[in-house]
Every structure is written in C-alpha cells, then in structure tokens.
C-alpha cells in the first residue's frame, strides 16, 4: 500500500477527501502515515480539531496529527462563509470531541520533515490546503520535499476563473509565496486545479443514496448532511452560483493516486503571481512552444467526472459497510 501524509484544512471537501482515504486504507490500497493541519478554510485550532474528529469517525485515532505553522502574512480571510463557522458545515458539535490536545500536537513543519526523512522516497504528500506548512518545511530543511515519493496538490486555476478573486484559487491565494516555494521544490509537482475540480459536482441525490442505505449509521448521515450544507453553500456564492451540488475539490487528489485513468494531464512550467494588485495568487502555465528545459509540474486538464463521482460514492458506501 501507498504511504500517505495529508496536509489539510478541513473544510467540507477536505473532509470528503479524508473519508475517501479512510475507505482506501481499509481496502488495503493506502497506509496513512500522518495528517498535518493548516490554517486556511478556518483557524489552526479548528482545522486541527476537525481533522481529529473526522479521523475518529472512521476509527483512525492512532494516526498522528500535527498543528498548523503560524503564519501572519494573510491578506485574504478564511473560508468559513463556505464551510460553516466551525469549518465542518456547522456539524462538528454532532461528532464526539477528540481527546487530542492542540497545544501538545507536533508542529506541522517538523512532522513533515521527520516523516519524509524517516522514509526517503516512500511517502506521498497530498496538499489540500494553503501551502504554508509545506513551504515552512522546505525552508527549514531545503530539499526535504524532494524526499517525497510524489507531491500532489489541489491548487490553482488556469483556464477557468478563480474562486477567491477572478484569477486566483483559494489554496494559492491564501499564501502565494508559500506556493512559489513549494512549486520550486521539485520538477514533478502534480496539480489538480479548479479546471478539473469544478467538474466534480457531487449532488445531494448521490449522498442521499448513502444515507438511505445506512439509515442508523452516524457516518452515513454525516456524509449526507455535509453534502447538503455544501450544496446549499455553493448556490449562495457567486463563483459557484448555478452549480447544483457540492464541488468536492480536494478529493480529486485521491483520484489521481488511486484512479489515475480518470484524469488527463499537461506537463509544463507553473509560476505564481505574487505582486499584482488584481492578479496576486494567479497560477500561470507557460504554454509557449520552443526550447524550455524547465518544467516543474503536471497539471490536470480533464477529468471523467461522472465515473469518478460514482467511484467516490461506492468507496464511501464501502466505508459505511465496515
Ligand atoms: C480549495 O479551497 C478550499 O476552500 C477547499 O477546501 C479547497 O481546498 C478549493 O479552491
Ligand atoms: Ca482544503
């Protein structure tokens, strides 16, 4: 099984990714080596608490969880308007509190460094939030991200509008300098941008099927309630207006790793705008032809959305059946 470290800011769609990964671990496809939480959708404390609760839901209490690196440079706010004030669709009170203490948790950057140094070339790192922790690890220990087997990010927007500004996607816009550091760390960063994640529209009918199949199971009801909240939230924000369902952005990273036949990629050089008043956080893929030796990324350009949503729902049902 593939060893996985997830860096995340749960987050409605992060939670779907975490639950999907639980299913994949239980099916024997993945081994979960840790979770680092990062400030983004909500605060460091809330992303930590949410990750712990979601792990406990599937019986993953023993997975180590790190807390966000503190970073004060933020110019854009969190995304509590989209994900609920608790970051968990205002449902976190329904889940038992985890006994884990935020104050006692390891710092995310140290945890990333230790995890990668302990198994060079073996651990796949998945980034589902702003790139603050990953960049901090790289700055503390230059070259560390190269020790990951693969680095897979939900990040950026290329040929579609952004979701924070007209050009910038949240995970990059939140901390563009961190995104630059991470993109400069390797030649093969795998990027799942809004271009594909916007097509992944999970409808309430799809999760209703899960809730109906397991009417007394807390997990199944939680999945459906999250989906209802996020669908409603989508309708209320102008960047997702008209979308009838929930964009499960972060989950696409797992599609790349475990169902790669559902995606198409373009290889190239991706840079991030850090200066412009209107363009800060924009991701740019250089598509000019000619001799260019430098590439740093594989950018997803197409996804078989319907097939993938079916696979996701099946795997979530499998998780519920255990
Ligand atoms: C990204 O922004 C966050 O709000 C989501 O969790 C996802 O990681 C999508 O742009
Ligand atoms: Ca996220």
Automatic annotation (TrEMBL):
SUPFAM superfamilies: Nucleoside hydrolase. InterPro entries: Inosine/uridine_hydrolase_dom, IUNH, Ribo_hydro-like. PANTHER family: INOSINE-URIDINE PREFERRING NUCLEOSIDE HYDROLASE, URIDINE NUCLEOSIDASE. This is Nucleoside hydrolase. It comes from Laspinema olomoucense D3b. Residues 4-305 form the Inosine/uridine-preferring nucleoside hydrolase domain. The keyword Nucleotide-binding does not apply. Pfam families: IU_nuc_hydro. GO terms for molecular function: hydrolase activity. Keywords: Glycosidase, Hydrolase.
